[in-house]
Amino acid sequence: MAKRPTSQNVADMAGVSKWTVIRAFTPGASITEESRAKVMAAAGQLNYRPNLLARSLATNLTHQVAILVDDFENPHKLPVLERLTLELQAEGLVPMLVNINERFGHVHALLNAGQRQVDAVILFGTAFRNETLQDARLEGAAPMFVLARDSQIPGVPAISCDATIAIEELCAHLREQGYRRPGFMAGPQTLSTALGRRRSFKTFWVRHGVEHVPELPAKSYSMTSGAEAVRHYLQETSAGDRIDVLMCENDALALGALDVLRSEFGLRVPQDIAVAGFDNIMFADAPAYDLTTYEQPIEDMVKTTIDMILGRRERQTVQLRGRLVVRGSTKRT
């Protein structure tokens, strides 16, 4: 294997010092355009690329960002990851995806990321808890950011869709359509990821005279769990006592519920039971589902997170407004 060219090789060919080569590849460094042009020409001929690892030792920055994900069953994750990694790379940052599971927990992942000297950690999942992330071993860890979820962790900013506004808009639409017996399907709840959607949903209906809002608990944010939850509810509840609209905490749950309502119980949507979701995933607008949902402002959330990581914006919790998308699964008129 051929030996890689060094900065000294480039300097010799360009007729400049080694430090001039280093400045030429350092954004914002002081160097004349003439010297930069010489360095770049020589680097091109030698096929030279700067050693980022060596640079990180000098700057104390690795330009690596760890992304911790713990619920890959949720189809909403893919478009967000696509946008997030695209924007990180555009800023010269290297995303490092970490699969959190029963064998590789959050503390283990954060300690591992610390050893790799990542510049920041983005928590993009549902299972992390306050007490876990406040483990004494994590003292001095890289700055953490929670994306697309609420956070109750002191010092850890959350960048999310404003759940209060979103649910208010969704519920106002449902009430306008004449629904009066609402139910809510919630995914697994943890201390630090209480999404606020369930709370806002119940608050709206209590304010409008509906004291009891049945809850359909789901084991995970997946179509399978959504199907299981609605199946159990329909089996245990007589037709006359059932809800007339089901709000699901995310679209994956809603799609699973729709499949069971129609194919297993022969119910009409929305005539017998209406269904709404949250996220506006790629399958939501398919004719088979035609799901009313709420679209999160992914691009704005991602850009806000990266601005905080790069110090262009103060690190603080931010809630952004999304967009209501009305489709046939709730429209009576």
TrEMBL record:
Organism superkingdom = Bacteria
Tell me which InterPro entries the record gives. Answer: HTH_LacI, LacI/GalR-like_sensor, Lambda_DNA-bd_dom_sf, Peripla_BP_I
Q: Does the keyword Isomerase apply?
A: no
A GO molecular function term, named singly, is: transcription cis-regulatory region binding
* Keyword DNA repair in annotation: no
- The residue ranges crossing the membrane are none
Keywords assigned: DNA-binding, Transcription, Transcription regulation
Q: What is this protein called?
A: LacI family transcriptional regulator
Native source organism of the sequence: Pararhizobium polonicum
